[in-house]
Amino acid sequence: KTKGGKSKKYSYEFKTRVVKENLEDKTSLNILEKKYNINDSVVFNRGHLYLDGGEDSLRTMSKASVIPLVC
Fold this sequence. Notes:
Elements: H1 12-23, H2 29-36, H3 40-53, H4 56-59
């Protein structure tokens, strides 16, 4: 979702770029949220999918595939 609550579909390329920017470049969720005007939970959830299933998991992501982490 974008900030403001509207659902938005993101391209595979966009999801991959943002997740890699977070995980590989160590860019914080807060900075990515502001840079791309997206909710930080979008990056967080996709990051975990990427870590669990690789880049292909970002191609077919659905709401059902997001499993919240308990910290």
